[in-house]
Every structure is written in C-alpha cells, then in structure tokens.
C-alpha cells in the first residue's frame, strides 16, 4: 500500500511538472517582483530586475531602493546571475525528497508567493523550469519562471538563497557521485 502511494505521488508530480513545462507561457510567469528590504517594499517589473541582472544598469527606483537599504548593487547582481549547474532530472527527484523540502522551505523564506501559500510548490516549479532551459539555475531565472503574477523577494536574504542553491547543487553532485 505504501509503495503504491509513493509511486502514485511521483507520477502525479511528474505529470504536473510536464504540464507546467508544456503549458507555461509568459502568462504563467511572474510579471512583478516585490523587493523587500527591511521596512522598504517596492514593486518592480521582472523586466527591470532582468535588465539590471544582465547589464548592471539600475533603474531609478531600483537605485533608490538599493541605496536606502545600503546594498551593494554589484553583490546583488552577482547573487542574481551566478548560475548553479544542475541535472534537471535529478533536481526533480531531490526536490521531491525530505532534503529537497528543507531546501525549498529555506529558499521560500526569501522568494515567495504574495499570499505566503504554496511557496514550496511554486518554487519547485520555478526551479525545474529554470533547470530545463539550460541545465542551470540562477535566482533571476527563478524569479522569471515563478508561476504567479507577482513574486516577493527578501533582498536582505538573497545571499542566503544563493547559498541554498549551491547546497542543492552539492547534494545533487553527491547523489550522482560526481
């Protein structure tokens, strides 16, 4: 009975991910990022954050927010763009394990849904979509692929989220024996 339940759960998760992959269009991806630094909250377009991540060019509102939060734009840009290489198939398996749930829980404290509901599921989908694109994951890709119109990001904890992605990469390498 236990075996059948686990097998059914994995099949359902796999079917859900496949549906997300084939049905995902820009309408299913985040359009806005609510960037939070302490008491400061600013809603920015994903395009605005992406431009900063790709070129280093700061929009006026992003420049003000980072200055008020006393954040180094170069460091933030590095955490947003530095990729973590992952095997998409093994990533899916790890994310559906206990260690994966712990990692998802920790990252979802930094990147979350506005309602604070279904954070792990949304983050799992964003990670798998990101990994399937090029075999690597970055925080900016997660934001772009987040399956809600809006995604909340705790800017003070971006470094911690990046460390969790690196931990995920290490866990995958250990499982693969690489």
Overall description:
A hairpin with a 2-residue loop joins strand 1 and strand 2 (40-45). The longest helix is centred in the first third of the chain and has 22 residues, at 2-23. Residues 19-27 have low confidence and may be disordered. Helix 7 packs across helix 8 (139-145). By secondary structure, this protein is of the alpha+beta class. The protein has helices spanning 2-23, 46-55, 60-68, 73-81, 88-95, 98-107, 119-134, 139-145, 158-176, and strands at residues 32-37, 40-45, 84-85, 111-112, 136-137, 150-154. The strands form 2 sheets. It has a 4-stranded mixed sheet with strand order 2-1-6-4. A two-stranded antiparallel sheet has the order 3-5. It has 9 helices and 6 strands.
